[in-house]
């Protein structure tokens, strides 16, 4: 005899330690149970020959789950017990509903470095289907800013140490039963992220990576010091890893940026197209960059070349999660993945990148094995595979390819895309095909894909088929022009960080420039590939406006008014007093450079982006360093009138710089190219510093003096 009892979800039948199934001939009706949390022990009557527990998977399917007298139910649903008493089999049906189904966890996003000033994410992981759920968050740390969104909490901690986060979860069932549960989690917050500077051309300094003046000379020095959440900035130049080794990422969320001129304070001041930063191998047998198991790292603004390995000549990514942005990956060799190898779950986000001139047996441009990278505005061309997949080789992988060019690659078979057990997804991409319409062998057509010539300025193969250095910027009448999807450009995040003062790092949507430094969207629609089409070979720089005010008693050259300077260039002007001395106040005896204060309204530029040098006639030359924004100047010739006259003097004698100061002070000496050539603390009195012939700027506090050694 079987009796089905419909689920009543009735209030009053709450959490119970155990429930007993009674044989129905006792006429004992067992009601259904609504309870807060499992497991709930279901018991059969004793004395039976055997028991069989089943779980009702569907109306017609049952799954056997046990044969003991009792069973611990851990999930909601219908349970059936068949009891064999020898002479009769009794089947009982019972239905259970848990308010808290399965496992509930309070987790935090491990990909975000646990650092001061970094936004941390906490979230509740639980089954909420069919339940009315609310959350009440609590923090033990007072010095925070946070926002809540349902089952997620976003919090920025301002101090270091162990922090506690809690959440009270309330589940209300239709019966009126209210169940509550408190979850907690802790996180150890360390100091703000650090920034390390690398410049192979730096002269002098402490070589501790703390600033451009004290930069490391080798990238591996910074990578050895960097920890989760840290950044490395690398100035223009050619860098090679140690013999027999690769650049390896030892910690999660380390980000390495190239393309600097060794003066920048903010990442957005970087012009990577003009400051080529190359990482290459000088020996054989290793990848240039190796990522193994690390998460959240980034390489941005590099040319990666001349690697030679079994897998991943340029980049070997095994089970890592990496972002590759604004890079050129070229002239690398490997058996698998000449440019990049993504393997064993190694997923990559690659955008604004050129992959060209690489060679391999399979997957000359990129080889994916059990990996699912995402490619956005990538150009893959001029690569050569001796077997398959000149552009992409996918083995058990389903990459997402968007706004990307796959054209002009060569291989014995499948020159652009080769798939084994893979279905890559293509959308708004230009893919070279040998037939009309979509070729299903390439993968899944997600829409917007085209075939046609990108009209590269120089292809990667000459007319005889020999490989050569290509120029993959788009030419006139390119099929790729205005054919991409803008939304894909806005998805990828570009960082804006200020390392010297270790301000909070933030990300903003989209990447504003293409690989050549042009605006990423010139017209209304983004182009396909790493480069936007521009009709001129030379790309004009954007002009920035400089406003010089009129100040009584001062003469400016150029004269007051609006002036213009190209982005990234210095702007220089001079200031001197009128012959009448009308800029002086009564009783003033200090020189103009001691009194003069020039500000822009930007505290960072006012502190580090203005140089003032006293000339022999008493005038002052002012340099605004690397202008990237419009500037309106404020000039005050009396700002330091009440201060004590410094009494310092700087002059030259033969091959020595001579200084006279009244108190112990720090002195830095630069050449005309801005390189630090000497830094020391000098005592009160006169000091002599020997230097080669040349022109130098001597920096004492916020004052500069020009000295010529003849």
From TrEMBL:
Signal peptide: none annotated. This is Uncharacterized protein. It comes from Tannerella forsythia.
């Amino acid at each position: 005899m079987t009796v089905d009892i419909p689920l009543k979800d009735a209030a009053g039948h709450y959490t119970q330690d155990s429930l007993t199934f009674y044989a129905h001939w006792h006429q004992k009706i067992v009601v259904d149970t609504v309870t807060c949390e499992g497991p709930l022990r279901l018991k059969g009557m004793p004395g039976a020959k055997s028991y069989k527990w089943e779980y009702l998977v569907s109306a017609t399917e049952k799954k056997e789950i046990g044969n003991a007298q009792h069973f611990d139910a851990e999930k909601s649903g219908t349970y059936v017990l068949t009891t064999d008493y020898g002479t009769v089999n009794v089947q009982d049906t019972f239905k259970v509903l848990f308010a808290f189904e399965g496992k509930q966890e309070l987790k935090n996003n491990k990909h975000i470095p646990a650092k001061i000033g970094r936004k941390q994410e906490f979230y509740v992981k639980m089954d909420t289907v069919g339940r009315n759920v609310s959350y009440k968050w609590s923090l033990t740390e007072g010095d925070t800013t946070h926002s809540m969104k349902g089952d997620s909490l976003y919090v920025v901690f301002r101090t270091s140490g162990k922090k506690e986060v809690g959440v009270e979860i309330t589940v209300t069932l239709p019966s009126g039963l209210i169940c509550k549960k408190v979850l907690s989690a802790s996180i150890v917050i360390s100091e703000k992220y650090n920034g390390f500077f690398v410049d192979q051309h730096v002269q002098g300094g402490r070589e501790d990576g703390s600033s451009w003046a004290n930069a490391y000379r080798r990238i591996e020095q910074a990578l050895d010091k960097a920890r989760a959440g840290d950044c490395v900035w690398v100035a223009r130049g050619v860098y090679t890893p140690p013999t027999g080794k690769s650049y390896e990422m030892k910690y999660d969320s380390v980000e390495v940026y190239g393309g600097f001129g060794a003066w920048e304070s903010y990442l957005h001041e970087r012009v990577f197209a003009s400051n080529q930063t190359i990482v290459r191998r000088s020996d054989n047998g290793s990848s240039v960059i190796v990522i193994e198991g690390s998460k959240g790292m980034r390489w941005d603004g590099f040319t990666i070349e001349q690697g030679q390995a079994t897998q991943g000549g340029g980049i070997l990514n095994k089970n890592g999660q990496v972002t590759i942005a604004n890079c050129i990956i070229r002239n690398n060799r490997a058996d698998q993945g000449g440019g990049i190898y993504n393997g064993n779950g190694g997923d990559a986000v690659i955008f604004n990148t050129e992959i060209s001139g690489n060679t391999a047996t399979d997957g000359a441009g990129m080889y994916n094995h059990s990996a699912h990278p995402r490619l956005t505005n990538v150009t893959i061309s001029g690569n050569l595979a001796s077997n398959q997949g000149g552009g992409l080789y996918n083995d058990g992988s389903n990459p997402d390819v968007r706004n990307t060019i796959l054209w002009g690659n060569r291989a014995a078979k499948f020159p652009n895309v080769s798939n084994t057990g893979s279905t890559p997804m293509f959308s708004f991409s230009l893919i070279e095909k040998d037939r009309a319409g979509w070729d299903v062998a390439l993968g899944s057509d997600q829409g917007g894909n085209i075939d046609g010539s990108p009209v590269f300025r120089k292809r990667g193969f000459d007319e005889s088929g020999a490989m050569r250095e290509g120029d993959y910027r788009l030419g006139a009448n390119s099929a790729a022009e205005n054919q991409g999807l803008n939304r894909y450009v806005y998805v990828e995040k570009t960082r804006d960080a200020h390392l010297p003062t270790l301000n909070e790092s933030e990300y903003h949507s989209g990447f504003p420039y293409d690989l050549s430094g042009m605006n990423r969207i010139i017209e209304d629609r983004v182009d396909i590939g790493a480069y936007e089409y521009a009709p001129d070979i030379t790309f004009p720089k954007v002009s920035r406006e400089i406003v010089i005010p009129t100040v009584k008693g001062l003469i400016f050259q150029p004269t007051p008014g609006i002036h213009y300077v190209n982005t990234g260039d210095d702007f220089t002007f001079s200031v001197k007093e009128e012959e009448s001395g009308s800029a002086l106040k009564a009783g003033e005896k200090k020189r103009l450079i001691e009194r003069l204060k020039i500000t822009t309204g930007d505290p960072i530029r006012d502190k580090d982006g203005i140089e003032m040098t006293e000339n022999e006639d008493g005038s002052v030359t002012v340099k605004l360093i690397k202008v990237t924004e419009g500037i309106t100047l404020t000039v005050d010739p009396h700002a330091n009138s009440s201060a004590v006259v410094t009494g310092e003097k700087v002059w030259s004698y033969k091959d020595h710089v001579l200084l006279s100061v009244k108190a112990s002070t720090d002195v830095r000496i630069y050449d005309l190219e801005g390189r630090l050539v000497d830094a020391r603390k000098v005592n009160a009195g006169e000091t002599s510093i020997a230097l080669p012939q040349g022109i130098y700027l001597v920096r004492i506090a916020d004052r500069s003096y020009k000295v010529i050694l003849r």
